[in-house]
Input
Amino acid sequence: MKLDAELELWRDQWQASPEAPELTGLRKRVARESLYMRMMLTADILVTLVIGGATIALALRSPRPATAILAAATWLFIATAWIFGLSNRKNAWSPSASTTSAFLDLSIRRSRGNLRAVKFGALLYAIEMAFCLSWLIHESGHLSKTLIIVVTVITLILAAALIIYRKRKRTDLNYLLQLQQDLTAA
Amino acid sequence: MNLSTAASLEAADAEPAIEQQLNRLLAENGPALLRLAASYTNTLSDRDDLFQDIAIALWKALPRFRGECSERTFLFRVAHNRSIDYLRRRRALTTSIEADAPLPDARPNPEAGLAQEQQGERLRQAIHRLPLPYRQVITLTLEEMSYTEIAAILGVTETNVGVRLNRARQLLRQLLENRK
Output
């Protein structure tokens, strides 16, 4: 069989496949995803404003060096988190118009960014906790049993979530690297 | 704000024009996209899910289309990228020529008289067993895309497209002939 005739035959067979299914609920799904993104963004801003605002309000209502330090440190932590978040995502947004090979590079960068974010999040949480607990001891002279239990439970839950998330992201990264290797080896 | 979030919100705001454009593109290319989705998935329901994911990705990507390539090239880029993301999420193993399951019988079934359909199904299953780089190139070729278009979709050189296509054809022939 001639090569082109072979390709033509395959084309005919390939293209004689069933019609595309009816797409239902597409608009609803786009709206739901957009709403979810708006909610995530609003939540980020709200957390910043509520926590940052509360420490400023406290510093204004009871102007002492300790409250001023608390407000300044809180805003420093918030700014650090935002700067890290933005710089970590800087080259990792989705250019859907890019090629598949570029998209794979991007997915790998995004995956590495997620792993960096896990490390950064854990470190920032440890520093914040150390600061907050020191501040509380300085203010009240001791830490209540209830507070210690609450902080321990929250820390354990967060640590477990971070470990699971990190494991998942590492598997993602390994898969993507393998896929990239398969694609470039061809 | 994350740039992808911004783009998605922009897409949602520009709904009517985007929706019209999307409907037109899907009407023209729906079957081709469905075949593409089938080449990345193992079951009909996964294929339909991926097809829907591709449609959503297109809806979000269309506002950023500036005509730097043909609409069809853009469409297939988005579709392939979404499919790669699907593989990551499912961590699907790329099927290879060593896959164990036999292809459907090449001999026509006289009772059903569905020889043509059978041949098509055999071809689709054989293509599905090709390693991903070859599968991508052969499916785009079967959708009547040129080397230039395929290179622009996958981000490889035209020479590489040619090399992959030759290898894909060899493997495909081997797979199909093994069952004759």
The longest helix of chain B spans residues 15-40. Chain B has two domains: 3-90, 115-177. Confidence is low (pLDDT under 50) at residues 1-9, 94-100 of chain B.
